[in-house]
Structure formats: C-alpha cells, structure tokens
Amino acid sequence: MKPYIRTGLAWSAVATILSVGLTVYTWTQLPEAAEIPVHWDIEGRPDRFAEKGTAMGLLMIVPGAIFLTGVILALIPPLDPRRGNIEIGRKAYLATWIGTAALMLAVHTGICVATLRSAGGADLPNGFVRYVIAGCGLLIIVIGNYMPKTRASFLFGVRTPWTLSSDLAWEKTHRAPGQFSWQRARWGSPGHLSSTASGSPCK
C-alpha cells in the first residue's frame, strides 16, 4: 500500500471515529420520549421530526459516508490503468481525500449541534447554511489549487477523450479550475463569511 493511501485512510479513520463519537454523544443527550428535529428550513426552523431511533439512524449517515468515501478512494488508484500518474499527482489526490473527510466531519458536527439545539427548542443560527456554503467553497479552492499538478488518469480529474489522449489538453483543462477556484477565494467564500458575520444576506 502506497504511503499516500495509508495517510488518507488514517485521516478517514480519524474522521469516522470522531463523527461516530459525536453521534453517540448526541444520542445520549436527546430526550427519550420526544420528536427529534431531523430537517430544517432555510430560516433554520425545524420542519421535519422523527422518533429518537430514526433520528439516530439518520445521524449515522454521515459517518457511514465518511467511511465509504475513504474505502472508495483507497481502491481507486490500484484500479486505474494509469495508476502511476495518480501517484505523481498524489498531493492533489490526498488534498481531495482529506478535504472531503474534513468537510463532512465539520458538517456533521453542525448537524449534531443543530439537533441538540432544536431538541431544546432553539432555532439554528442564521449563519449555519452560509458556513456550509463557505466550507464547500474552501474545498473547491483547495482542490483547484492542486489540480494543475495532476497527470492524466481514468479515475481522477476531468476525463474526456481529449484530456486522456493529450497531456497538453489535460494540463490546460486542469489549469482552468485552479484559476477559477482562486477567483472564488477572492469573491466567493469571504463574501459568505462576511455576510454571516454581519447578518446580511449574500449578494
């Protein structure tokens, strides 16, 4: 097993364990005989409820997704006919892997906090959705920064007949997401965070 795959699996394992721990803690703090909020509208008000057992099952979706994503990302490189190119671009692959696991863990933490707050009768903070959007934007920035450093492969990157048959087409295609992501860094995510801090809607 390649070192970068071991590193990715370690991050996935940590994120999975932490997310399961958060789920168990949330479970222990929820009242037994109560309708638990499991969905919220855009204003942060709960609009769907379930019994505690059903809520627990829904809370386990994200830990399961983190675990499954880690397994899939560990299996992709050995299956790719151009596995050597994935290893050349392993920094991009690992950044995508770790960034995705970290984002899912952060979102799950927010969901657990929201569940506990709503079970106590409070609404979600106004900026919760904007923080999720900003987190997705930051992940795009990280991935876009590393994509120009990748090499052509069948299972990672922008795969078209043109990019797979021409190293020049691959390089130019993957340079564009990097430039776009930094534009998002300048105009996108800071706007979400600043609007959250001020309480104003995103423009």
Describe the protein.
With 203 residues, this protein is mainly alpha-helical. It has one domain (3-198). The protein contains 9 helices and 2 strands. The protein has helices spanning 3-29, 52-59, 61-79, 83-88, 90-119, 128-146, 161-165, 167-187, 189-198, and strands at residues 36-40, 46-50. Strands 1-2 form a two-stranded antiparallel sheet. A hairpin with a 5-residue loop joins strand 1 and strand 2. Helix 3 (61-79) runs antiparallel to helix 5 (90-119). The chain is elongated and about 60 Å long. The N and C termini lie far apart (47 Å).
Number of E strands: 2
The protein's oligomeric status is single chain
Tally of domains:
1
Distance between the termini: 47 Å
Please report which band the strand proportion falls in: under 5%, 5-15%, 15-25%, 25-35%, 35-45% or over 45%.
Answer: under 5%
Mean pLDDT score: 79
- Structural class estimated from helices and strands: mainly alpha
Outline type: elongated
Q: Helical segment tally?
A: 9
**What is the H/E string?**
HEEHHHHHHHH
Determine Rg (CA atoms, Å). Answer: 20 Å
Detail the poorly predicted runs. 190-203
Query: For the report, how would you describe the main beta sheet?
Result: 2 strands, antiparallel
